[in-house]
Design brief:
The protein is of the alpha/beta class and 434 residues long. 44% of the residues lie in helices and 18% in strands.
């Protein structure tokens, strides 16, 4: 069965191409190279089983689509437009169900056969979906569409082991800097921001006791912290080098920031007081505009010690479940392209303010006028997609930040002391995968 599904997938992808999507971004080249002997053999087998000319869309069928609740109506409108633009697919119907990006992967893995045919999910769930066989590779013209249309961060988020498995639809989950431009005249460095805030008696907020925000310093210095998982989603290895000279520099930078009188731990604009700068996300744009008024401004994260702060980036993706029916497979793939193309991403931005991953959509006047999204897009070029992490990692990272906040670790700590702290942190992270 697995080989038959793979064969159908490869035949449909490599032979059919993107002839019916009505999308101007698709490359014309319809060939792809099979990456393994099995894939090559499967393609040859499929060429006999499902030639392009034999696909019969008239039999139709139902396509189940899972999307976040706030885009169910939008997705229904897009389905209607998709069918209108592709009358050959008119015999197909769609059932659109509200399943959030955080829940979709878990539901798919639990019951792949009963899961959605096309589904939205958060990028940190991709490895689990691939291991469970719940999402199929994106190949041929579909791969060309993904790589040529979207920013590098979102393409990386859709990739496992060098293979693309999903269609990016947003690049809008990450953090950057909001600031009061009447106070902070140079947002390019932490040192300049902190100096300006100290001088004005204003606060600079960043959440240093968070495993999400903390990585801005460590990843910026070139440190690694990722986990490998097996087919069941168990953590099998931790790839970490925090206990290193670059890790010591990152930890000292966090301590130096916390030592400023302007520093406040936090990342919620709504809860900030006397604030002139805050590291936060697009979800707080309205609150930031209300607080800063005419002095509202945004920028990518600053540098510290001459090094660009990095961190995690988050993306929403669309996956297509493997299919035995080549005609249905073709419709599902073309639908995924439709729902992730430039026009739909722009329409989705206008409808619910999701930040596009599509490069042309990001360059549109409407999106460029959105200062928060523009700052985030610039920052995402320096981030890595958030993968899967054990729950204990987040607790451990909170403890590390708390030790800085309460002074157990500080700017006066020696390099040896900081290295000892990081060695313990690193060993503990590794233990979660043993």
């Amino acid at each position: 069965m697995k080989k038959k599904i793979l064969a159908t997938l490869l035949a449909a992808t490599m032979v059919l191409g993107l002839c019916a999507c009505g999308n101007k971004e698709v490359a014309e080249d319809t060939t792809a190279t099979a990456e393994t002997t099995e894939a090559t053999e499967a393609t040859e087998e499929a060429a006999e089983e499902a030639p392009a000319a034999d696909l019969d869309f008239s039999q139709g069928g139902n396509i189940t689509i899972w999307v976040a609740e706030n885009v169910v109506d939008f997705t229904q409108q897009q389905w209607d437009a998709f069918i209108a633009a592709n009358p050959d697919y008119a015999a197909f119907t769609a059932t659109i169900e509200p399943v959030g990006e955080g829940d979709a992967a878990g539901n798919m893995i639990t019951d792949v056969e009963g899961g959605a045919d096309v589904f939205g999910f958060a990028q940190d769930q991709l490895a689990r979906l691939v291991s469970a066989g719940a999402v199929m590779p994106v190949m041929g013209d579909y791969e060309s569409f993904v790589t040529s249309s979207n920013d590098a961060g979102s393409v990386a988020a859709a990739t496992v082991g060098g293979t693309i498995y999903a269609y990016p639809i947003t690049s809008d989950n990450g953090y950057f800097l909001y600031y009061d431009k009447s106070v902070v005249t140079d947002p390019s460095t932490v040192e300049a921001i902190a100096e300006a805030c100290d001088a004005a008696g204003k606060n600079f907020y960043m959440e240093i006791n968070s495993g999400w925000y903390q990585t801005a310093f460590f990843f910026g210095e070139g440190c690694t912290l990722t986990y490998d998982t097996d087919d069941e989603g168990n953590f099998t290895a931790c790839n970490i080098d925090y206990a290193s000279d670059k890790g010591v520099k990152a930890l000292r930078n966090i301590c130096d920031l916390a030592a400023h009188k302007c520093f406040q731990n936090g990342s919620s604009m709504s809860n900030a007081t006397n604030v002139a700068a805050i590291v936060d996300g697009t979800w707080d744009a309205s609150a930031a505009k209300e607080v800063f008024g005419d002095n509202y401004a945004c920028a990518k994260l600053p540098t510290m010690g001459g090094v660009q702060l990095s961190g995690f980036g988050g993306f929403k993706l669309l996956g297509v479940k493997p299919q035995e029916d080549a005609a249905k497979l073709k419709v599902c793939q073309d639908l995924a392209v439709w729902l992730s193309n430039e026009e739909t991403q722009l329409a989705r931005y206008e409808a619910v303010a999701w930040g596009p991953s599509n490069i042309n959509a990001q360059a549109s006047d409407a999106v460029k006028a959105d200062e928060a999204l523009s700052a985030l897009a610039e920052q995402l070029a320096y981030t890595i997609p958030q993968g899967q992490y054990p729950g204990d990692y987040w607790t451990l990272a909170t403890s590390l930040g708390d030790d800085i906040i309460n002074g157990t670790i500080s700017s006066s700590s020696s390099d040896e002391d900081l290295m000892a702290v990081l060695q313990n942190f690193q060993d503990t992270c590794i233990s979660y995968a043993q």
